[in-house]
Structures are given as C-alpha cells and as structure tokens.
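User: My collaborator sent over this chain with a note saying "see what the structure looks like." That's all I know about it. Can you take a look?
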Amino acid sequence: MRTARIATTGLTLAAALLVGTAATTAQAQAAQPAPVPACSLANTKATVQNVSRPINHQLLTVTNTSARPCFAYGHPHLAFDAAQNVVPVVDDSILQAVVTLEPGRSAYAGINLSAADGSGTDGYYASVLRVSFDDGDGTESRARTVTLPEGTWVDSKAAVTYWQSEVEDALKW
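Assistant: Without extra context I'll predict from the sequence alone. Here is the result:
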C-alpha cells in the first residue's frame, strides 16, 4: 500500500512538472517577438531622384510602409530598362550591420549612373529601373519597376552602393 502511494505521488509530481514545463515553454514562445522580415515589395515603397552632387548620381530610397520593422539586407539589385545584367555593387560601401527600417523610416542607396570622365561605353537614356531586394539569404526577391527621372543617362560604369541609413553615406561613393 505504501509503495502504491509513493508511486502515485511520484506520478502526480511528474505530471505536474510536465504541465508546468509545457506552460512555461508556451509562455516563453508567446513572449518571443516574431522574427524581423526582410524588406520586400510587400512592405516598402521605392523612389529614385536626381541629386545635385555628386554628378552622374541618383538616390534610391526605400521606405518601410508596414507596421513592423524590416531588414534591408546587403544591397539592392538593379537593372535599367530591359538589361539582362544587374548593376555591379560598390564593394567599399558595405556596412558592418544590416540596416533596420522601423515603420515609416527609409534606407538609401547611391546609384552611380555613368563615368564622369566619359570613359564608360554603351551609354543610353534609361526610363525605368528594376529593383530587387536581398531576402537575407543571398537570393533576390521579385523586381519592382520604378520610373526614372527624365533624361537619365547610364553607361557601362553604372554601379550601386549597399543600403545605407543616411543619405550622405549613400552618396559619398
């Protein structure tokens, strides 16, 4: 009888411990915030504008339009008009950390359109820019088409910076 009571007490304690552990695990999982998504077509708006300095540059701005933060990973993947190749990235512009966009905040990338000294080749007037995002694992998202300012001239020396938190940082390359 005493053995049965000890076994029952042991089972009751074990069951209580399991229920308590399950409740604590569920509470911990519920308390953890959802992972921050990558910035994408679904949660941003993109614009391109001319800048006065440096010459032959434009500024690409993406603004978080969602109610949650998003990560602007790496750099934008850009292609002008119907170009098959994406514009190369300025490697020296890489940041130490991923740019986090809180709701309503923006990230910036500088676009070098052409060689200032005329050394670029295959120049043409472009009317649209296809913008893709890095999904955080090195893959590109679907592209968004953004209308370029009239008279946008691009050549073989076109390049883009990594995402930056400040306009000045995006345009110094």
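A starting point for your reply to your collaborator: The CA atoms of residues 35 and 70 lie 9 Å apart.
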